[in-house]
Amino acid sequence: QVQLAESGGGLVQPGGSLRLSCVASGFIFSTYAMKWYRQAPGNERELVAAISSTGGITNYADSVKGRFTISRDNAKDTVHLQMNSLKPEDTAVYYCNAQNYQTKGDYWGQGTQVTVSS
After folding, report:
1. Which residues neighbour 112 within 8 Å (Cβ) at sequence distance 6 or greater?
2. Chain segment 91-105, per-residue pLDDT in tens
3. N or C terminus of the chain with fewer C-beta within 10 Å?
């Protein structure tokens, strides 16, 4: 059974930091690109950060470059999103996504809420 379990969300003040984690199970994690998306109320889901299966390539949305860092540990089937200098506009539900373009595997977690507010 495929599962992506996110954790680490919460309430933080502007300028603060959070570290999101996503633990995968039920598929070969090391063969999947991993991504973090977010969706704020009334907005479409947007791609925040992505990392290749080996971790050698990362990409970020312009809005988070220099503040967020995506990383993965293939030995632990885990992907992280370190979020620094958080802004109120970062408030959203953050989703973990696993994608394998060859096998067309595409899996989603349930999401974790991040709220940035004073």
Report:
1. 6, 7, 8, 9, 20, 93, 94
2. 999 999 999 999 899
3. N
- In whole numbers, what is the pLDDT of the chain averaged over residues? 97
What's the rounded Cα separation, in Å, for the pair 53 and 100?
9
**Contact predicate 95/6, CB 8 Å:** yes
Tokens of residue 36, six digits: 């973090």
**pLDDT at residue 103 in the model:** 87
**Nearest CA among 20, 25, 14, 15 for reference residue 35:** 20
Question: What six digits make up the tokens of 6?
Answer: 């996110």
Q: Which pair of structure tokens corresponds to residue 115?
A: 């709220």
Cβ–Cβ under 8 Å, residues 93 and 63: no
pLDDT > 70 fraction of the chain, expressed in percent and rounded? 100
Instruction: Could you list the beta-strand ranges (E) of the chain.
Output: 3-7, 10-12, 18-25, 33-39, 46-51, 58-60, 68-73, 78-83, 92-100, 105-108, 112-116
